Here is the input.
Amino acid sequence: METRHIIVILFLALLWLWLCWILVSAGGLTGKNAFLIVASGIIIFVPLWKRYIRPSQGGGDKRDNRK
Here is the structure.
């Protein structure tokens, strides 16, 4: 994984944590807020995981297999 990918993922993680902190501090930790945090984490980080961290295991982007 390239350095720029690591920087982008870290930036997104910090931004996501900051927004989660704002959500919890404004409304408390309720079931709805917990669901929003988990759902947004899945939406943000699962595609990044599949594209940049796991391609060596054969599950990467199909466009990478073209020659």
In short: The mean pLDDT is 84.
